[in-house]
Recover the amino acids of this structure.
Protein backbone atom coordinates (compact mmCIF):
# COMPACT_ATOMS: atom_id res chain seq x y z
CA UNK A 1 0.00 0.00 0.00
CA UNK A 2 2.72 2.35 -0.58
CA UNK A 3 4.79 3.08 -3.59
CA UNK A 4 7.82 0.99 -2.96
CA UNK A 5 10.16 -0.75 -4.96
CA UNK A 6 11.21 -2.55 -7.99
CA UNK A 7 8.66 -4.10 -10.25
CA UNK A 8 8.25 -7.80 -9.69
CA UNK A 9 7.82 -10.07 -12.65
CA UNK A 10 4.12 -10.60 -12.17
CA UNK A 11 3.41 -6.91 -12.43
CA UNK A 12 5.69 -6.53 -15.39
CA UNK A 13 3.39 -8.90 -17.21
CA UNK A 14 0.41 -6.57 -17.00
CA UNK A 15 2.03 -4.33 -19.55
CA UNK A 16 1.18 -7.00 -22.10
CA UNK A 17 -2.49 -7.24 -21.23
CA UNK A 18 -4.77 -6.11 -24.02
CA UNK A 19 -7.43 -8.79 -24.22
CA UNK A 20 -8.87 -8.03 -20.78
CA UNK A 21 -10.31 -4.67 -21.80
CA UNK A 22 -14.01 -4.00 -21.65
CA UNK A 23 -15.36 -3.74 -25.18
CA UNK A 24 -17.03 -0.42 -24.34
CA UNK A 25 -13.63 1.17 -23.69
CA UNK A 26 -11.87 2.79 -26.66
CA UNK A 27 -9.01 0.63 -27.84
CA UNK A 28 -6.34 3.22 -27.08
CA UNK A 29 -6.51 6.14 -24.73
CA UNK A 30 -3.75 8.65 -25.12
CA UNK A 31 -0.79 9.91 -23.22
CA UNK A 32 -1.61 13.57 -23.26
CA UNK A 33 0.51 16.64 -22.62
CA UNK A 34 -2.57 18.85 -22.80
CA UNK A 35 -5.43 17.11 -21.02
CA UNK A 36 -5.80 16.83 -17.26
CA UNK A 37 -7.44 13.93 -15.44
CA UNK A 38 -10.67 15.92 -15.46
CA UNK A 39 -10.30 16.52 -19.19
CA UNK A 40 -9.67 12.83 -19.78
CA UNK A 41 -12.92 11.96 -18.02
CA UNK A 42 -14.89 14.70 -19.76
CA UNK A 43 -13.61 13.88 -23.24
CA UNK A 44 -14.82 10.30 -22.78
CA UNK A 45 -18.15 11.18 -21.23
CA UNK A 46 -19.92 8.36 -23.06
CA UNK A 47 -18.00 6.01 -20.76
CA UNK A 48 -17.39 8.07 -17.61
CA UNK A 49 -20.26 10.58 -17.30
CA UNK A 50 -21.70 8.94 -14.18
CA UNK A 51 -18.41 9.12 -12.30
CA UNK A 52 -17.97 12.69 -13.50
CA UNK A 53 -21.31 13.51 -11.89
CA UNK A 54 -20.13 11.96 -8.61
CA UNK A 55 -16.99 14.09 -8.76
CA UNK A 56 -19.03 17.22 -9.53
CA UNK A 57 -21.44 16.65 -6.66
CA UNK A 58 -18.51 16.14 -4.28
CA UNK A 59 -16.62 19.18 -5.68
CA UNK A 60 -13.57 17.19 -6.75
CA UNK A 61 -13.90 17.39 -10.51
CA UNK A 62 -12.42 20.89 -10.59
CA UNK A 63 -9.50 19.72 -8.43
CA UNK A 64 -8.63 17.11 -11.06
CA UNK A 65 -8.41 19.93 -13.59
CA UNK A 66 -5.68 21.73 -11.65
CA UNK A 67 -1.92 21.42 -11.44
CA UNK A 68 -0.65 18.59 -9.26
CA UNK A 69 -0.06 14.86 -9.31
CA UNK A 70 -2.94 12.45 -9.00
CA UNK A 71 -3.66 8.80 -9.56
CA UNK A 72 -7.33 8.36 -10.39
CA UNK A 73 -9.15 5.04 -10.61
CA UNK A 74 -12.06 5.82 -12.92
CA UNK A 75 -15.06 3.45 -12.94
CA UNK A 76 -17.07 3.07 -16.12
CA UNK A 77 -20.74 3.99 -16.37
CA UNK A 78 -21.55 0.28 -16.14
CA UNK A 79 -19.57 0.09 -12.90
CA UNK A 80 -21.46 3.05 -11.43
CA UNK A 81 -24.77 1.54 -12.56
CA UNK A 82 -23.92 -1.70 -10.73
CA UNK A 83 -23.11 0.28 -7.59
CA UNK A 84 -26.40 2.17 -7.77
CA UNK A 85 -28.36 -1.05 -8.16
CA UNK A 86 -26.56 -2.79 -5.29
CA UNK A 87 -27.19 0.13 -2.95
CA UNK A 88 -30.79 0.96 -3.84
CA UNK A 89 -30.16 4.25 -5.66
CA UNK A 90 -31.91 5.08 -8.93
CA UNK A 91 -29.49 7.78 -10.05
CA UNK A 92 -26.28 9.42 -8.90
CA UNK A 93 -28.38 12.32 -7.60
CA UNK A 94 -29.96 9.95 -5.08
CA UNK A 95 -26.59 9.27 -3.41
CA UNK A 96 -26.28 11.39 -0.25
CA UNK A 97 -23.65 14.11 -0.56
CA UNK A 98 -21.55 12.68 2.28
CA UNK A 99 -21.38 9.31 0.50
CA UNK A 100 -20.57 11.03 -2.80
CA UNK A 101 -17.66 12.72 -1.06
CA UNK A 102 -16.42 9.40 0.32
CA UNK A 103 -16.74 7.69 -3.05
CA UNK A 104 -14.84 10.44 -4.85
CA UNK A 105 -11.99 10.48 -2.34
CA UNK A 106 -11.78 6.68 -2.39
CA UNK A 107 -10.88 6.75 -6.09
CA UNK A 108 -8.17 9.43 -5.87
CA UNK A 109 -4.57 9.18 -4.71
CA UNK A 110 -3.23 12.68 -4.22
CA UNK A 111 0.36 13.93 -4.70
CA UNK A 112 1.59 10.92 -6.67
CA UNK A 113 1.17 9.64 -10.23
CA UNK A 114 1.45 5.86 -10.01
CA UNK A 115 1.80 3.76 -13.13
CA UNK A 116 1.50 0.00 -13.04
CA UNK A 117 5.20 -0.14 -13.86
CA UNK A 118 5.84 1.68 -10.57
CA UNK A 119 3.67 -0.48 -8.38
CA UNK A 120 4.82 -3.65 -6.68
CA UNK A 121 2.18 -6.32 -6.10
CA UNK A 122 -0.24 -5.25 -3.36
CA UNK A 123 1.63 -1.99 -2.88
CA UNK A 124 -0.10 1.39 -3.07
CA UNK A 125 -0.26 4.54 -0.99
CA UNK A 126 -3.27 5.88 0.82
CA UNK A 127 -6.14 7.44 -1.07
CA UNK A 128 -7.72 10.74 -0.05
CA UNK A 129 -9.74 8.93 2.61
CA UNK A 130 -6.49 7.84 4.26
CA UNK A 131 -7.28 4.25 3.33
CA UNK A 132 -4.88 1.91 1.63
CA UNK A 133 -5.55 0.70 -1.88
CA UNK A 134 -4.52 -2.92 -2.36
CA UNK A 135 -3.51 -4.62 -5.58
CA UNK A 136 -3.64 -8.32 -6.29
CA UNK A 137 -3.21 -10.39 -9.42
CA UNK A 138 -4.89 -13.37 -11.02
CA UNK A 139 -4.83 -15.13 -14.36
CA UNK A 140 -7.66 -15.08 -16.88
CA UNK A 141 -8.22 -18.74 -17.76
CA UNK A 142 -10.52 -17.75 -20.63
CA UNK A 143 -7.83 -15.60 -22.22
CA UNK A 144 -4.61 -17.64 -22.39
CA UNK A 145 -4.05 -17.12 -18.67
CA UNK A 146 -3.32 -13.43 -19.19
CA UNK A 147 -2.52 -11.67 -15.93
CA UNK A 148 -5.32 -9.58 -14.47
CA UNK A 149 -4.77 -6.87 -11.86
CA UNK A 150 -7.44 -6.18 -9.24
CA UNK A 151 -7.80 -3.15 -7.00
CA UNK A 152 -9.13 -4.01 -3.53
CA UNK A 153 -9.71 -7.58 -4.75
CA UNK A 154 -12.94 -6.82 -6.67
CA UNK A 155 -12.28 -4.05 -9.19
CA UNK A 156 -10.39 -5.10 -12.28
CA UNK A 157 -8.13 -2.65 -14.08
CA UNK A 158 -9.36 -2.83 -17.66
CA UNK A 159 -7.37 0.10 -19.04
CA UNK A 160 -4.12 1.16 -17.44
CA UNK A 161 -1.52 3.91 -17.38
CA UNK A 162 -3.27 6.72 -19.25
CA UNK A 163 -0.94 9.68 -18.78
CA UNK A 164 -2.45 13.10 -18.27
CA UNK A 165 -0.83 16.42 -17.48
CA UNK A 166 -1.46 16.08 -13.77
CA UNK A 167 -1.02 12.38 -13.22
CA UNK A 168 -2.33 9.08 -14.47
CA UNK A 169 -5.71 7.40 -14.91
CA UNK A 170 -6.60 3.71 -14.58
CA UNK A 171 -10.02 2.51 -15.73
CA UNK A 172 -11.78 -0.05 -13.51
CA UNK A 173 -14.85 -2.21 -14.03
CA UNK A 174 -16.27 -1.89 -10.51
CA UNK A 175 -16.45 1.02 -8.09
CA UNK A 176 -14.07 1.01 -5.17
CA UNK A 177 -15.72 0.83 -1.80
CA UNK A 178 -14.14 0.52 1.62
CA UNK A 179 -15.44 -1.18 4.71
CA UNK A 180 -16.53 1.20 7.46
CA UNK A 181 -16.04 -1.48 10.07
CA UNK A 182 -13.30 -1.71 12.64
CA UNK A 183 -10.86 -4.61 12.46
CA UNK A 184 -12.52 -6.99 14.98
CA UNK A 185 -15.89 -6.65 13.26
CA UNK A 186 -14.35 -7.37 9.87
CA UNK A 187 -12.66 -10.49 11.28
CA UNK A 188 -16.02 -11.51 12.72
CA UNK A 189 -17.62 -11.34 9.27
CA UNK A 190 -15.11 -13.78 7.77
CA UNK A 191 -16.72 -17.25 7.95
CA UNK A 192 -13.30 -18.92 7.90
CA UNK A 193 -12.16 -17.26 11.15
CA UNK A 194 -14.86 -18.27 13.64
CA UNK A 195 -12.63 -19.89 16.27
CA UNK A 196 -10.14 -17.02 16.44
CA UNK A 197 -12.97 -14.47 16.51
CA UNK A 198 -14.62 -16.22 19.46
CA UNK A 199 -11.28 -16.06 21.29
CA UNK A 200 -10.83 -12.41 20.32
CA UNK A 201 -14.15 -11.53 21.95
CA UNK A 202 -13.71 -13.72 25.02
CA UNK A 203 -10.36 -12.18 25.91
CA UNK A 204 -11.55 -8.60 25.42
CA UNK A 205 -8.81 -8.02 22.85
CA UNK A 206 -11.49 -7.02 20.34
CA UNK A 207 -11.89 -3.83 22.38
CA UNK A 208 -8.14 -3.28 22.38
CA UNK A 209 -8.04 -3.02 18.57
CA UNK A 210 -11.06 -0.76 18.16
CA UNK A 211 -9.48 2.70 18.40
CA UNK A 212 -9.14 4.83 15.28
CA UNK A 213 -8.47 8.59 15.49
CA UNK A 214 -6.69 10.53 18.22
CA UNK A 215 -9.14 13.38 18.84
CA UNK A 216 -6.55 15.29 20.89
CA UNK A 217 -4.18 15.65 17.92
CA UNK A 218 -4.19 18.68 15.64
CA UNK A 219 -1.69 20.14 13.21
CA UNK A 220 -1.71 23.43 11.34
CA UNK A 221 -2.30 23.39 7.61
CA UNK A 222 1.06 25.01 6.92
CA UNK A 223 2.89 22.12 8.58
CA UNK A 224 0.74 19.57 6.75
CA UNK A 225 0.61 21.11 3.27
CA UNK A 226 3.66 23.35 2.97
CA UNK A 227 5.87 21.61 5.49
CA UNK A 228 8.64 22.90 7.73
CA UNK A 229 12.26 23.31 6.69
CA UNK A 230 14.63 21.20 8.76
CA UNK A 231 18.42 20.99 8.60
CA UNK A 232 19.56 17.54 7.58
CA UNK A 233 23.26 17.29 6.73
CA UNK A 234 25.75 19.79 5.35
CA UNK A 235 26.77 20.23 1.73
CA UNK A 236 30.35 20.05 0.48
CA UNK A 237 30.45 23.86 0.55
CA UNK A 238 29.59 23.92 4.23
CA UNK A 239 26.04 25.13 3.69
CA UNK A 240 23.15 23.52 5.54
CA UNK A 241 21.00 21.15 3.51
CA UNK A 242 17.37 21.85 4.32
CA UNK A 243 14.68 19.23 3.82
CA UNK A 244 10.96 19.79 4.03
CA UNK A 245 9.26 17.94 6.87
CA UNK A 246 5.56 17.31 6.33
CA UNK A 247 3.48 16.55 9.39
CA UNK A 248 0.52 14.12 9.38
CA UNK A 249 -2.83 15.88 9.25
CA UNK A 250 -4.38 13.28 11.54
CA UNK A 251 -3.08 10.76 14.01
CA UNK A 252 -4.49 7.27 13.62
CA UNK A 253 -4.51 4.20 15.79
CA UNK A 254 -4.26 1.16 13.53
CA UNK A 255 -3.66 -2.54 13.98
CA UNK A 256 -2.68 -5.72 12.17
CA UNK A 257 -3.87 -9.22 13.01
CA UNK A 258 -2.22 -12.42 11.82
CA UNK A 259 -4.96 -15.02 11.96
CA UNK A 260 -5.22 -18.78 11.48
CA UNK A 261 -8.28 -19.88 9.50
CA UNK A 262 -10.43 -22.56 11.11
CA UNK A 263 -8.91 -25.10 8.69
CA UNK A 264 -5.47 -24.59 10.26
CA UNK A 265 -6.88 -25.20 13.73
CA UNK A 266 -8.72 -28.33 12.56
CA UNK A 267 -5.45 -29.69 11.14
CA UNK A 268 -4.16 -29.55 14.74
CA UNK A 269 -7.27 -31.20 16.19
CA UNK A 270 -8.81 -27.90 17.35
CA UNK A 271 -12.40 -27.47 16.16
CA UNK A 272 -13.91 -25.21 18.82
CA UNK A 273 -13.04 -22.50 21.33
CA UNK A 274 -12.75 -24.92 24.26
CA UNK A 275 -10.03 -26.89 22.50
CA UNK A 276 -8.20 -23.68 21.63
CA UNK A 277 -8.30 -22.67 25.30
CA UNK A 278 -6.74 -26.03 26.22
CA UNK A 279 -4.09 -25.67 23.49
CA UNK A 280 -3.16 -22.15 24.65
CA UNK A 281 -2.84 -23.35 28.25
CA UNK A 282 -0.51 -26.17 27.22
CA UNK A 283 1.77 -23.79 25.27
CA UNK A 284 1.85 -20.87 27.68
CA UNK A 285 2.06 -22.87 30.88
CA UNK A 286 5.32 -24.24 29.47
CA UNK A 287 6.50 -20.86 28.23
CA UNK A 288 5.61 -19.07 31.50
CA UNK A 289 5.73 -21.79 34.20
CA UNK A 290 5.70 -19.19 36.96
CA UNK A 291 2.14 -18.20 35.91
CA UNK A 292 0.78 -21.70 35.27
CA UNK A 293 -2.72 -22.14 36.71
CA UNK A 294 -2.94 -18.65 38.22
CA UNK A 295 -5.14 -16.90 35.67
CA UNK A 296 -6.94 -19.69 33.81
CA UNK A 297 -10.47 -18.44 34.57
CA UNK A 298 -9.82 -14.74 33.93
CA UNK A 299 -9.66 -14.51 30.16
CA UNK A 300 -9.16 -10.75 30.18
CA UNK A 301 -6.08 -10.92 32.40
CA UNK A 302 -2.98 -10.24 30.32
CA UNK A 303 -1.25 -13.34 31.77
CA UNK A 304 -4.15 -15.67 30.97
CA UNK A 305 -2.95 -18.28 28.42
CA UNK A 306 -5.72 -17.59 25.89
CA UNK A 307 -5.23 -13.85 26.28
CA UNK A 308 -1.52 -14.29 25.62
CA UNK A 309 -2.33 -16.48 22.62
CA UNK A 310 -4.71 -13.99 21.02
CA UNK A 311 -2.74 -10.85 21.77
CA UNK A 312 0.43 -12.38 20.32
CA UNK A 313 -1.41 -12.39 16.99
CA UNK A 314 -1.90 -8.60 17.15
CA UNK A 315 0.43 -5.67 16.48
CA UNK A 316 -0.51 -2.05 17.16
CA UNK A 317 0.31 -0.75 13.68
CA UNK A 318 -0.91 -1.35 10.16
CA UNK A 319 1.16 -3.20 7.62
CA UNK A 320 0.46 -5.00 4.39
CA UNK A 321 2.35 -8.03 3.22
CA UNK A 322 5.42 -6.15 1.96
CA UNK A 323 5.60 -3.65 4.82
CA UNK A 324 7.14 -5.87 7.50
CA UNK A 325 10.58 -6.20 5.93
CA UNK A 326 12.27 -4.20 3.18
CA UNK A 327 11.58 -5.68 -0.25
CA UNK A 328 11.81 -4.46 -3.85
CA UNK A 329 14.72 -2.20 -4.80
CA UNK A 330 16.13 -2.15 -1.28
CA UNK A 331 16.16 -5.93 -1.09
CA UNK A 332 17.50 -6.38 -4.62
CA UNK A 333 20.22 -3.73 -4.40
CA UNK A 334 21.20 -3.69 -0.75
CA UNK A 335 20.53 -6.97 1.07
CA UNK A 336 23.07 -9.74 0.44
CA UNK A 337 20.76 -12.80 0.40
CA UNK A 338 23.37 -15.55 0.65
CA UNK A 339 24.50 -14.01 3.94
CA UNK A 340 21.26 -13.05 5.70
CA UNK A 341 17.56 -12.85 4.95
CA UNK A 342 15.87 -9.45 5.10
CA UNK A 343 14.40 -9.21 8.58
CA UNK A 344 12.74 -6.90 11.11
CA UNK A 345 11.42 -7.21 14.65
CA UNK A 346 8.18 -5.93 16.16
CA UNK A 347 6.71 -5.90 19.62
CA UNK A 348 3.38 -7.73 19.74
CA UNK A 349 0.39 -6.72 21.85
CA UNK A 350 0.98 -9.61 24.26
CA UNK A 351 2.97 -7.96 27.07
CA UNK A 352 6.77 -8.25 26.73
CA UNK A 353 6.71 -10.30 23.52
CA UNK A 354 8.43 -9.83 20.19
CA UNK A 355 8.12 -11.26 16.66
CA UNK A 356 10.79 -11.80 14.05
CA UNK A 357 9.70 -11.26 10.44
CA UNK A 358 11.90 -12.40 7.57
CA UNK A 359 11.57 -12.81 3.84
CA UNK A 360 12.91 -16.17 2.67
CA UNK A 361 12.27 -18.40 -0.34
CA UNK A 362 10.00 -15.67 -1.78
CA UNK A 363 7.69 -15.70 1.21
CA UNK A 364 7.15 -13.74 4.41
CA UNK A 365 7.59 -15.72 7.64
CA UNK A 366 7.13 -15.05 11.34
CA UNK A 367 9.61 -16.61 13.80
CA UNK A 368 11.63 -18.55 11.29
CA UNK A 369 15.15 -19.74 12.09
CA UNK A 370 17.61 -20.35 9.29
CA UNK A 371 18.74 -18.84 6.03
CA UNK A 372 16.72 -18.79 2.81
CA UNK A 373 15.44 -22.31 2.15
CA UNK A 374 17.56 -23.91 4.88
CA UNK A 375 15.51 -23.44 8.02
CA UNK A 376 15.63 -25.84 10.96
CA UNK A 377 12.59 -23.95 12.30
CA UNK A 378 10.22 -23.18 9.44
CA UNK A 379 8.16 -20.56 11.23
CA UNK A 380 4.67 -19.46 10.26
CA UNK A 381 4.11 -18.27 6.70
CA UNK A 382 2.00 -15.18 5.99
CA UNK A 383 -0.27 -15.77 3.01
CA UNK A 384 -0.05 -13.38 0.08
CA UNK A 385 -3.09 -11.40 -1.01
CA UNK A 386 -3.77 -13.64 -4.01
CA UNK A 387 -3.75 -16.69 -1.71
CA UNK A 388 -6.33 -15.23 0.66
CA UNK A 389 -9.63 -15.61 -1.14
CA UNK A 390 -12.13 -12.86 -1.83
CA UNK A 391 -12.91 -11.66 1.70
CA UNK A 392 -12.19 -7.99 2.32
CA UNK A 393 -9.31 -7.80 4.80
CA UNK A 394 -8.85 -4.04 5.20
CA UNK A 395 -10.87 -2.30 7.90
CA UNK A 396 -11.06 1.37 8.82
CA UNK A 397 -8.44 0.89 11.50
CA UNK A 398 -6.33 -1.98 10.27
CA UNK A 399 -5.88 -5.13 8.27
CA UNK A 400 -5.68 -8.86 8.90
CA UNK A 401 -3.59 -11.52 7.20
CA UNK A 402 -4.09 -15.26 6.99
CA UNK A 403 -1.26 -17.46 8.29
CA UNK A 404 -0.67 -21.11 7.47
CA UNK A 405 0.17 -22.52 10.92
CA UNK A 406 -0.48 -21.76 14.58
CA UNK A 407 1.45 -18.73 15.85
CA UNK A 408 2.66 -18.95 19.47
CA UNK A 409 5.28 -17.39 21.72
CA UNK A 410 6.41 -20.78 22.91
CA UNK A 411 9.48 -21.63 24.95
CA UNK A 412 11.13 -22.83 21.73
CA UNK A 413 10.45 -19.50 20.01
CA UNK A 414 11.72 -17.54 23.00
CA UNK A 415 14.83 -19.58 23.79
CA UNK A 416 15.76 -21.01 20.41
CA UNK A 417 14.38 -19.01 17.47
CA UNK A 418 14.93 -15.62 19.15
CA UNK A 419 18.23 -16.59 20.74
CA UNK A 420 19.97 -14.39 18.21
CA UNK A 421 21.30 -10.94 17.54
CA UNK A 422 18.23 -8.83 16.86
CA UNK A 423 18.88 -5.87 14.55
CA UNK A 424 16.01 -3.43 15.00
CA UNK A 425 15.55 -0.63 12.49
CA UNK A 426 14.78 2.73 14.08
CA UNK A 427 11.64 3.20 12.00
CA UNK A 428 10.07 0.12 13.64
CA UNK A 429 10.38 1.58 17.14
CA UNK A 430 7.02 3.38 17.11
CA UNK A 431 3.69 2.32 15.60
CA UNK A 432 3.14 5.97 14.65
CA UNK A 433 5.93 5.75 12.08
CA UNK A 434 4.01 3.04 10.21
CA UNK A 435 0.50 4.32 10.88
CA UNK A 436 1.48 7.67 9.37
CA UNK A 437 2.89 5.95 6.28
CA UNK A 438 6.37 7.26 7.14
CA UNK A 439 8.47 4.12 7.65
CA UNK A 440 8.61 3.45 3.91
CA UNK A 441 7.77 6.57 1.96
CA UNK A 442 8.19 7.52 -1.70
CA UNK A 443 11.74 6.76 -2.74
CA UNK A 444 11.60 9.51 -5.37
CA UNK A 445 10.90 12.18 -2.76
CA UNK A 446 13.77 13.28 -0.55
CA UNK A 447 11.79 14.53 2.42
CA UNK A 448 10.91 13.94 6.04
CA UNK A 449 7.71 13.03 7.83
CA UNK A 450 7.73 15.12 11.00
CA UNK A 451 6.17 14.13 14.32
CA UNK A 452 4.83 16.32 17.10
CA UNK A 453 6.08 16.07 20.64
CA UNK A 454 3.74 13.92 22.69
CA UNK A 455 2.25 12.09 19.72
CA UNK A 456 4.83 9.37 19.07
CA UNK A 457 4.03 6.14 20.90
CA UNK A 458 7.04 4.70 22.76
CA UNK A 459 9.06 7.91 22.28
CA UNK A 460 9.63 10.89 24.56
CA UNK A 461 11.22 14.13 23.44
CA UNK A 462 11.94 17.59 24.79
CA UNK A 463 10.37 20.71 23.34
CA UNK A 464 13.71 21.55 21.70
CA UNK A 465 13.77 18.24 19.82
CA UNK A 466 12.67 17.58 16.24
CA UNK A 467 11.99 13.97 15.18
CA UNK A 468 11.34 13.05 11.56
CA UNK A 469 11.48 9.86 9.50
CA UNK A 470 13.39 10.18 6.24
CA UNK A 471 12.08 8.73 3.01
CA UNK A 472 13.68 5.54 1.73
CA UNK A 473 16.71 5.84 -0.53
CA UNK A 474 18.40 2.76 -1.99
CA UNK A 475 21.72 4.60 -2.29
CA UNK A 476 21.86 5.73 1.35
CA UNK A 477 24.57 4.58 3.70
CA UNK A 478 21.87 3.62 6.13
CA UNK A 479 20.41 0.24 7.04
CA UNK A 480 17.16 -0.36 5.12
CA UNK A 481 17.66 2.90 3.25
CA UNK A 482 16.06 5.16 5.85
CA UNK A 483 16.85 6.87 9.12
CA UNK A 484 15.34 9.08 11.79
CA UNK A 485 16.48 12.69 11.92
CA UNK A 486 16.81 13.93 15.52
CA UNK A 487 17.87 17.56 15.60
CA UNK A 488 18.05 20.63 17.80
CA UNK A 489 19.46 20.67 21.33
CA UNK A 490 17.76 17.33 21.56
CA UNK A 491 16.84 15.11 24.46
CA UNK A 492 14.97 12.08 23.17
CA UNK A 493 14.13 8.63 24.55
CA UNK A 494 12.74 5.53 22.86
CA UNK A 495 11.40 2.31 24.36
CA UNK A 496 13.32 -0.78 23.37
CA UNK A 497 11.49 -3.94 22.30
CA UNK A 498 11.45 -6.66 24.96
CA UNK A 499 14.09 -9.37 25.13
CA UNK A 500 12.72 -12.92 24.73
CA UNK A 501 14.60 -14.34 27.72
CA UNK A 502 16.32 -12.84 30.74
CA UNK A 503 20.11 -12.75 30.79
CA UNK A 504 23.12 -10.65 29.83
CA UNK A 505 22.67 -8.69 26.62
CA UNK A 506 24.66 -6.15 24.66
CA UNK A 507 22.80 -3.08 23.44
CA UNK A 508 24.44 -1.53 20.40
CA UNK A 509 23.75 1.37 18.12
CA UNK A 510 24.52 1.38 14.41
CA UNK A 511 25.08 4.79 12.83
CA UNK A 512 26.82 6.74 10.10
CA UNK A 513 29.27 9.49 10.97
CA UNK A 514 29.31 13.09 9.83
CA UNK A 515 31.07 16.24 10.93
CA UNK A 516 27.70 17.96 11.46
CA UNK A 517 26.23 15.26 13.71
CA UNK A 518 27.53 16.22 17.10
CA UNK A 519 27.70 13.95 20.14
CA UNK A 520 25.21 12.56 22.63
CA UNK A 521 25.23 11.12 26.09
CA UNK A 522 23.33 7.85 26.10
CA UNK A 523 21.37 6.49 29.06
CA UNK A 524 19.54 3.23 29.71
CA UNK A 525 16.65 3.87 32.10
CA UNK A 526 18.43 7.14 32.95
CA UNK A 527 21.69 5.41 33.92
CA UNK A 528 24.62 6.73 31.79
CA UNK A 529 26.09 4.28 29.28
CA UNK A 530 29.75 5.26 29.44
CA UNK A 531 31.12 8.38 27.78
CA UNK A 532 29.15 10.31 25.13
CA UNK A 533 28.89 8.85 21.62
CA UNK A 534 30.71 11.07 19.12
CA UNK A 535 28.88 10.96 15.79
CA UNK A 536 31.49 13.07 14.06
CA UNK A 537 33.98 11.56 11.63
CA UNK A 538 37.40 10.54 12.83
CA UNK A 539 38.88 13.59 11.11
CA UNK A 540 36.98 15.68 13.63
CA UNK A 541 36.70 13.48 16.66
CA UNK A 542 40.01 11.65 16.44
CA UNK A 543 40.84 8.01 15.70
CA UNK A 544 38.63 6.72 18.48
CA UNK A 545 36.99 3.64 16.95
CA UNK A 546 40.09 1.67 15.97
CA UNK A 547 38.61 0.87 12.54
CA UNK A 548 41.07 -0.81 10.17
CA UNK A 549 40.29 -2.39 6.77
CA UNK A 550 40.08 -6.15 6.43
CA UNK A 551 43.14 -7.97 5.19
CA UNK A 552 43.77 -11.26 3.38
CA UNK A 553 44.71 -12.83 6.72
CA UNK A 554 41.59 -13.98 8.58
CA UNK A 555 43.45 -14.31 11.88
CA UNK A 556 44.51 -10.69 11.57
CA UNK A 557 40.91 -9.67 10.82
CA UNK A 558 39.75 -11.43 13.98
CA UNK A 559 42.42 -9.57 15.94
CA UNK A 560 41.35 -6.24 14.42
CA UNK A 561 37.73 -6.92 15.35
CA UNK A 562 38.75 -7.81 18.90
CA UNK A 563 40.82 -4.65 19.25
CA UNK A 564 37.91 -2.57 18.01
CA UNK A 565 35.53 -4.26 20.47
CA UNK A 566 37.95 -3.47 23.27
CA UNK A 567 37.33 0.19 22.45
CA UNK A 568 33.58 -0.39 22.52
CA UNK A 569 33.04 -0.44 18.75
CA UNK A 570 32.31 -2.90 15.97
CA UNK A 571 32.41 -2.62 12.21
CA UNK A 572 29.08 -2.44 10.41
CA UNK A 573 27.48 -5.63 9.06
CA UNK A 574 28.68 -7.49 5.96
CA UNK A 575 25.12 -8.53 5.04
CA UNK A 576 23.95 -5.16 3.74
CA UNK A 577 25.19 -2.69 1.16
CA UNK A 578 25.06 -4.73 -2.03
CA UNK A 579 28.33 -4.78 -3.97
CA UNK A 580 29.91 -2.51 -1.36
CA UNK A 581 29.01 -4.08 2.02
CA UNK A 582 28.74 -1.72 4.96
CA UNK A 583 31.52 -3.58 6.77
CA UNK A 584 34.05 -2.10 4.37
CA UNK A 585 32.90 1.54 4.59
CA UNK A 586 35.92 3.18 6.19
CA UNK A 587 35.48 5.77 8.95
CA UNK A 588 31.81 6.29 8.21
CA UNK A 589 29.74 3.32 9.44
CA UNK A 590 30.25 1.65 12.81
CA UNK A 591 28.41 0.01 15.69
CA UNK A 592 28.87 1.38 19.19
CA UNK A 593 28.44 -1.04 22.11
CA UNK A 594 26.37 1.12 24.44
CA UNK A 595 26.11 -1.23 27.40
CA UNK A 596 26.38 -4.86 28.43
CA UNK A 597 24.13 -5.85 31.30
CA UNK A 598 21.40 -8.11 32.62
CA UNK A 599 18.02 -7.52 30.96
CA UNK A 600 14.76 -9.00 32.25
CA UNK A 601 11.86 -10.16 30.15
CA UNK A 602 9.45 -8.44 32.53
CA UNK A 603 11.13 -5.02 32.58
CA UNK A 604 10.70 -2.03 30.27
CA UNK A 605 13.88 -0.40 28.98
CA UNK A 606 14.22 3.13 27.59
CA UNK A 607 17.24 4.37 25.64
CA UNK A 608 17.83 8.10 25.98
CA UNK A 609 20.03 10.37 23.82
CA UNK A 610 20.95 13.87 25.05
CA UNK A 611 22.89 16.28 22.83
CA UNK A 612 26.02 17.40 24.71
CA UNK A 613 27.29 20.03 22.25
CA UNK A 614 25.72 23.47 22.45
CA UNK A 615 24.87 23.79 18.77
CA UNK A 616 21.28 23.54 17.56
CA UNK A 617 22.49 22.94 13.98
CA UNK A 618 23.94 19.54 14.89
CA UNK A 619 21.79 16.45 14.60
CA UNK A 620 21.73 12.69 14.99
CA UNK A 621 20.88 10.34 12.13
CA UNK A 622 19.40 7.47 14.13
CA UNK A 623 19.65 4.21 12.17
CA UNK A 624 19.28 0.95 14.12
CA UNK A 625 19.68 -0.78 17.47
CA UNK A 626 21.00 -4.29 18.14
CA UNK A 627 20.07 -6.49 21.08
CA UNK A 628 22.59 -9.33 21.29
CA UNK A 629 22.58 -12.07 23.97
CA UNK A 630 25.75 -13.35 25.60
CA UNK A 631 25.15 -16.74 23.97
CA UNK A 632 25.84 -15.04 20.62
CA UNK A 633 28.50 -12.40 21.25
CA UNK A 634 30.45 -14.71 23.59
CA UNK A 635 29.92 -17.98 21.74
CA UNK A 636 32.93 -20.34 21.30
CA UNK A 637 32.95 -19.70 17.54
CA UNK A 638 32.53 -15.97 17.94
CA UNK A 639 29.71 -13.82 16.63
CA UNK A 640 29.24 -13.76 12.86
CA UNK A 641 29.79 -10.52 10.94
CA UNK A 642 26.40 -10.50 9.33
Amino acid sequence: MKLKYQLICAICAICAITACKDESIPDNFYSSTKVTAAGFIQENSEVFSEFQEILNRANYFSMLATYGEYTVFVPTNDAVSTYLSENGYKTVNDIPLAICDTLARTHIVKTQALFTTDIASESMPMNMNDRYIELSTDSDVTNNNALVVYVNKRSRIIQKDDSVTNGVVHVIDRMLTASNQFLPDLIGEDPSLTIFYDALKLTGMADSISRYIDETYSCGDDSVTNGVKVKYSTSSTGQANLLTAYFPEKRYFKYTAFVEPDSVYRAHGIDNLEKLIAYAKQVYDESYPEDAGLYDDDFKHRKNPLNRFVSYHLINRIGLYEDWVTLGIIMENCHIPNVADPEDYYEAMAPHTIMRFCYAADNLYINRKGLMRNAPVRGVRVLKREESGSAEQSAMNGVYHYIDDILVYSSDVRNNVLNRRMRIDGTTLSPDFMNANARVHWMEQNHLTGFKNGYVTDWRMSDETFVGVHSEQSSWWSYEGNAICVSGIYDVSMKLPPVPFSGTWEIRMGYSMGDDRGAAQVYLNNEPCGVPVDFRTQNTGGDYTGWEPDTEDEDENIALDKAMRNRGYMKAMDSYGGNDPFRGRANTLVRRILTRQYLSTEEEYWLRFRQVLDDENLYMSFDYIELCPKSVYDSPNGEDRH
